[in-house]
Amino acid sequence: MKKLIAVVALSLTPFISFASSVVVGEHLPQINIADKGEVILAQGKFSYRDWSSDELKGRVMVVQHLAGRTASKELNDPLMEVIADANFSPEVYNTATIVNTDDAMWGTSGLVNSSLKDNKEEFPTAIFVIDASGNTLNQLALEEKSSAIFLIDKEGTVLFSKDGALTKDEITEVMGMINANI
Predict the structure, then answer these.
(1) What is residue 35's predicted lDDT score, i.e. its pLDDT?
(2) Domain 26-181: what homologous superfamily?
(3) pTM of the entire structure?
(4) I need a labelling partner for 4 at 20 to 30 A (CA). Which of 23, 47, 126, 127 fits?
């Protein structure tokens, strides 16, 4: 009986996420960030505004949550590079990057903020959010010092969820899901 339970549990692992509260097939949990928030670039000047995950609906989105550390960013750089190379239309696809600067190495938050501003200039249609209090990490029960990827459809339903580095097969899977849903 124990073997049967183990087999059933393992067969369900592609559909659930043990490391977070984000569940494939359900809506992305509500996230509100008021401490810093979305990086806005208007007329050459940067500002911040409160941000909510409600703003993610209407397009297929990859939501990347990462600690404010270079090593965390590098975990899923291969996926981000493939997405950038795909050159999806911003009318049907976008990327939202939420950076937890509360989980940055001591003294580096300013560098992380500067890097996000540079990214906003390079990718003006992408969404960049600074979570200075670590609300998203705690609310979604994510791993510290890591990177999580969530793919959501136009209605905000989670199609893919993983906390940690994606494998090559998972990158192919995510890209297939993006193409199938745009």
Answers:
(1) 82
(2) Glutaredoxin (3.40.30.10)
(3) 0.82
(4) 23
